[in-house]
From TrEMBL:
Residue ranges constituting the Peptidase M3A/M3B catalytic domain according to the UniProt record: 251-699
Cofactor comment text: Binds 1 zinc ion.
Cofactor(s) essential for the protein: Zn(2+)
Protein name: Peptidase M3A/M3B catalytic domain-containing protein
Keywords linked to the UniProt accession: Hydrolase, Metal-binding, Metalloprotease, Protease, Signal, Zinc
GO CC term, one of those recorded: cytosol
Organismal lineage: Bacteria, Pseudomonadati, Bacteroidota, Bacteroidia, Bacteroidales
Signal peptide segment: 1-24
Organism listed in the record: Phocaeicola dorei CL02T12C06
PANTHER family per the UniProt record, alphabetical: DIPEPTIDYL CARBOXYPEPTIDASE (PTHR43660)
Name of a matching Pfam family: Peptidase_M3
Length: 701
């Protein structure tokens, strides 16, 4: 139940609020009393491993008592005593879950991994005990059929609650409900296992270089970072490159040593596919089978149909229609880029055929030849602190909000930073944590989450506590962190999610979350400002001289910005199609070879052999981990929206147009899902979006 037990799964955007538990609490457990920290943020410095399990168990017990109180209420069911009471239940469970799963993503350890496995079946049972409570559903149904006088937000909460229970199996017979419980528990554990295996596989690989000549072509900052990694591993004098993106991607782009590029490339694309204890192939097969069985139990022919019913797309056909529209021009563009790559190989008087480990290296050379731009020329102007200030600058120009660094807050990790966000009238909007660098205890990628979501308590607004977590290139000791253009873009993206969390203003948890294929609109539109010349002139300053990035370099960035979109779009679309193809299956054979399925389903579409799916099956955590199941297409679906939405600013001649920004905040960022997603967009834009701005933005038109 997405708003009854949000904390049961760690997804991209978490939610929670702090409140005092009702039972007598053992002394010393910070979850069992009100936080006394500034802004009532979690007291990370006081939370110990032994605090989690008692708080989880007590949280589930308290919520069950709250459910019993609703069910046993002798008064007729009303919105307040049933729907609102259910929505507000589980305060302690929400409180501990948001901290535990937030930290498990950003700073896990073996104990946390073990506890999450222990908790998984307990939480699955607890969630099902609520979702399949016959008397509770009877009260919900009574209100649904006789709602009384409700405002718009209350009507939406009632609608979502009823729908959640139906989709949670409330209308199934007893035998089917028993089977559903078993499937939910199995799915939860398999998703957890998949993610843990993927992280262990990523951390296990090391490319150890002990000859300086093997570093040829690599930028100095990457070499220094690899030396630092080796030193931390007790191998001073060597260099260690890892499968974390800030290490592996620039290595593939710049390393002259082709054999080493091949080695790290194969290490990257074979994660979870090595026949060891962390192999994910059988995990995936079992997961697909369990999901399909659940969908059929709920009356759907495949899992995608079940999942998409709650999203903007509604049907698999609508998703395929969009992806197929973009696939043809993308493949054409990728073939043009492959021709450029082959031309560069010939310049080296080499006779080999380009492989996956050659693409980034020779595409970078082709880009330099075409546009006279080396991406390493840009890095000195993208000092992390300056990019962060650029992100804050754009938010201030658009919405008038400010960010002030705080030194008196407990931090989720010593590397993290804390900021207070204030609205344009000076009122407190929330707290923002930022945590930038990779570590073995942190999962890969970048995300935005919450340690407390915005809500209301006793009629008073409770401000959110938001976190942005990234995996940027860590600098060597004493050196500044210089970002790549892609990393700078990522920071703008995740900050867009943060703004969505900070601006949200709803009274109920059940109307806080927008559909999965809408949630990337606030993040992706923020990327559009990242490299606008007006914005670059503010934050892109040389880390040594303070010189503003030269206009000529900005012009080169602009001209070259769309180069490489054939590769980037093809690898993304391949992953989106793979995700969909798995989840439209109507049968999962017991002997299914998932890697063979991947090869065949992408091969029949003509994907170039040099371009692997952005996420191959055995490390595709977006879908196999549960956050974007039958939903990885959401990024491109939302990109149709964000490219069209950005046109609204450009049409005025002012990318910081206050009227447009005000409408975007009001209709997109503030109201959760009180309105349907397309209605929200039309309320902002005045029309439905078209696909042309996306094709133009990606250079595919």
């Amino acid at each position: 139940m997405k708003h009854i037990l949000l904390a049961a799964c760690a997804v991209a955007i978490l939610s929670g609020c702090g409140s005092q538990g009702k039972q007598a609490a053992p002394t010393g457990n910070p979850f069992l009393s009100e936080y006394t920290t500034p802004f009532q943020v979690p007291p990370f410095d006081q939370i110990k491993m032994e605090h989690y399990k008692p708080a989880f168990l007590q949280g589930m017990e308290e919520q069950q008592k709250e459910i019993d109180a609703i069910v046993n209420n002798p008064e007729p069911a009303t919105f307040q005593n049933t729907i609102a009471a259910l929505d507000q239940s589980g305060t302690l469970l929400r409180k501990v879950s948001t901290v535990f799963y937030g930290l498990k993503s950003a700073n896990t350890n073996d104990e946390m991994d073990a506890l999450s496995r222990e908790l998984s079946p307990l939480q699955s049972k607890h969630s099902d005990d609520i979702a399949l409570n016959e008397k509770l559903f009877a009260r919900i149904k009574a209100v649904y059929e006789n709602p009384g006088n409700l405002d718009k937000e209350q009507k939406k909460l009632l609608e979502e609650t009823y729908k959640d229970f139906v989709r949670g199996g409330a209308n199934l017979d007893a035998e089917s409900q028993k089977k559903l419980r078993e499937l939910n528990s199995e799915i939860s554990m398999l998703q957890l296992t998949f993610g843990q295996n993927m992280q262990k596989e990523t951390n296990a690989f090391q490319l150890i270089v002990d000859k300086e000549e093997d570093l040829a072509g690599l930028p100095q900052n990457l070499i220094a970072s690899a030396a630092e990694t080796a030193k931390e591993a007790g191998m001073e004098g060597k260099w260690i490159f890892t499968l974390h993106n800030p290490s592996v991607m620039p290595f593939l782009q710049y390393a002259d040593n082709r054999d080493l590029r091949e080695k790290i490339f194969k290490g990257y694309i074979n994660r979870g596919n090595n026949g060891n204890e962390y192999d994910n192939k059988e995990v995936v097969r079992k997961l697909l089978k369990a999901r399909l069985e659940k969908a059929k139990l709920m009356g759907y022919e495949n899992y995608a149909s079940f999942a998409l019913e709650e999203r903007m797309a509604k049907t698999p056909d609508a998703v395929y229609k969009l992806l197929d529209q973009i696939w043809t021009p993308t493949l054409s563009k990728a073939k043009e880029e492959l021709a450029d790559i082959n031309a560069e190989i010939k310049k080296d008087r080499k006779t080999f055929t380009a492989e996956g480990w050659d693409w980034r290296y020779y595409a970078d050379r082709a880009k330099k030849a075409k546009f006279d731009l080396d991406e390493n020329q840009v890095r000195p102007y993208l000092k992390l602190e300056n990019v962060r200030n650029g992100v804050f600058y754009v938010a201030n120009k658009l919405y008038g909000i400010t960010f002030t660094q705080l030194d008196n807050l407990p931090l989720p990790h010593p590397d993290a930073q804390a900021f207070e966000c204030k609205d344009k009238d000076g009122s407190h909007l929330g707290v923002l944590y930022m945590d930038f660098f990779p570590r073995a205890s942190k999962k890969g990628g970048a995300w935005c989450g919450s340690y407390r979501s915005q809500t209301y308590k006793d009629g008073k607004k409770v401000a959110p506590v938001v976190t942005v977590v990234c995996n940027f290139t860590k600098p060597a000791a004493g050196q500044p962190a210089l970002l790549s253009a892609d990393e700078a873009n990522t920071l703008f993206h995740e900050f867009g999610h943060a703004l969505h969390n900070l601006f949200k203003d709803v009274h109920y948890y059940g109307v806080a979350s927008v559909p999965r294929d809408f949630v990337e609109l606030p993040s992706q539109i923020d990327e559009h400002w990242a490299f606008e010349p007006e914005v670059l002139n503010v934050y892109a300053k040389h880390y040594q001289t303070g010189e503003v990035i030269p206009a000529g370099l900005v012009e080169k960035m602009d001209k070259s910005g769309k180069y490489g979109q054939g590769f980037a779009t093809a690898e993304y679309l391949a992953a989106s199609l793979l995700d969909m193809d798995y989840h439209v299956l109507k049968e999962i054979p017991d002997d299914m070879d998932v890697m063979q399925f991947e090869t065949e389903t992408l091969g029949k579409r003509g994907l170039l052999k040099q371009i692997p799916s952005r996420y191959r099956t055995t490390y595709f955590n977006h879908t196999m981990g549960g956050g974007y199941t039958a939903g990885y297409y959401s990024y491109i679906w939302a990109e149709v929206l964000d490219c069209d939405a950005y046109e609204a600013y450009k049409e005025t001649g002012d990318i910081f147009n206050q009227e447009v920004a005000g409408k975007f905040r009001k209709y997109i960022l503030t109201s959760g899902c009180i309105d349907d997603a397309m209605d929200m967009y039309v309320n902002f834009r005045g029309k439905e979006p078209g696909i042309d701005p996306l094709l133009k933005n990606r250079g595919l038109k």
